[in-house]
Amino acid sequence: MSVLIYAENAEGRFKKSTFEAVSYARAIADQNGAQLTAVSIGDVSNDELNNLAKYGADKILNIANAQLKNFVNQAYASVIAEAAKKEGADIVVLSNSFSGSGLAPRLGVKLDAGVVDGATALPEQNDGKFTVKKTAFSGKAFAIVELTSTNKVISLTPNAYKVVEAARAAQIEVFDAEVKASDLKTILKEIVRSADKVSLPDAEIVVSAGRGLKGPENWGMIEELATLLGAATACSKPVSDAGWRPHSEHVGQTGIAVSPNLYIAVGISGAIQHLAGISSSKVIVAINKDPEAPIFKVADYGIVGDAFEVVPKLIAAIKEH
Ligand code: FAD
Questions:
Q1: CB contact set of 181 (below 8 Å; sequence gap of 6+)
Q2: Family assignment (predicted)?
Q3: Which atom of ligand 1 is nearest to the CA of 294?
Q4: 258 and 199 in contact (C-beta within 8 Å)?
Q5: Quick one: how many helices (H) and strands (E) in the chain?
């Protein structure tokens, strides 16, 4: 038996969620006395690749084909599947990130595998049954699913599993995977970032605001707080619908799902559709003047107060320290 982990990078650096997935895959390999191979795609330095060994990869496959510099769903799925076949991997693990959520079902088809998307715990393997706990209904419930196929694909919910050091002396092997023209029907030519902004889906800290802020002219304090914390800014749906903020900042069931270590919700009521996008945040802080606001039911810390008083005080306190 063998386990393969797809190690996703952002501009040549592995994300924390990737190391979580490596640790998770290491634990599955240990459960089964199996080898763990990590596969990386794109332009990643050897120093960075070696970090995969720090968290338990026995072997590192590096796919650095020029055509795969930027993420292309179909092509990435094909070469990961090729790597899995080459390694004889029965289980493929990846992070349930934006790209992971597109890759998992494609890998399922290519490997004839059962797929669990959004796993939150290690598989249970008893009496020949292989079951995995996962999120369901946009994070409002859990489901236990059984995988009956020989090959299995598991995408791990970010922040659901701890990064665990388990250093190995892994070799880096260049894998010159074949890239088919039919997999490159859509090519990502360039990613143009909004100037100096922290990317919302990958942010460790998110400062988000809702209709309680009354209008777009009041976002200065949200941006200042975000800059001080090195955070991304986000908003609720009505805020982006009203054009106060760009749609790319809209978080929730119909927007982006985030999983930061810290989510600060300012003037957001906590509607179920908003919570669907933030439920895997590690710590939620709510600032709302209504003590009955539903956001307080999910918040780890709550401040009942007027955002226009609380946020400037928070900014001043952070500046003092
Ligand atoms: P409100 O619900 O109006 O809440 C504003 C809050 O600000 C209140 O709790 C109020 O007490 C507080 N407040 C007011 N003044 C202050 C002040 N001075 N200081 C502090 N607090 C103050 N919503 C999303 O966000 N994301 C989604 O993806 C999404 N998808 C949806 C999909 C569907 C099919 C539907 C029907 C709805 C969806 N919604 C979504 C909308 C959702 O139901 C809510 O309407 C929305 O989240 C509310 O946004 P809000 O919290 O900014 O505004």
A1: none
A2: Belongs to the ETF alpha-subunit/FixB family.
A3: 9
A4: no
A5: 9, 17
Residue 264: name the closest of 294, 237, 232, 242 by CA.
Answer: 232
299 C-beta closer than 6 A to ligand 1? no
Q: Partners of 232 in the beta sheet? A: 206
Tell me the CA–centroid distance for residue 249 and ligand 1, in Å: 14
Q: Tokens at residue 95, please?
A: 């992070």
For residue 236 and ligand 1, the question of a CB distance below 6 A is answered with yes
Could you give the CA distance from residue 19 to residue 95 in angstroms, rounded to a whole number?
9
Q: d(Cα 310, Cα 287) in Å, to the nearest integer?
A: 8
Question: What pLDDT, in 10s, does the model give residues 301-314?
Answer: 999 999 999 999 99
- Beta bridge partners, 51, equal none
How would you classify the pairing of strands 141-146 and 152-156?
Answer: unpaired
Q: Kindly state the tokens that stand for 132.
A: 């995995």
Q: Are 210 and 239 in contact (CB under 8 A)?
A: yes
114 touches ligand 1 (CB under 6 Å): no
Q: Identify residue 305 by its one-letter amino acid code.
A: G
Contact assessment for residue 75 and residue 53, using Cβ atoms and an 8 Å cutoff:
no
- Band of pLDDT at residue 240, cut at 50, 70 and 90: very high
Q: What mean pLDDT do residues 169-194 have?
A: 87
Q: Which of 250, 273, 279 to mutate to test the pocket of ligand 1 (most atoms within 8 A of CB)?
A: 273
What is the CA(307)–ligand 1 centre distance, in A?
Answer: 15
Assign 196 a pLDDT band (cuts: 50, 70, 90).
low
Question: What is the distance between the terminal CA atoms of the chain, rounded to a whole angstrom?
Answer: 52
- Taking CA atoms, 43 is separated from 46, 66, 121, 244, 311, in Å, by 10, 8, 31, 37, 41
3-state secondary structure of 102: helix
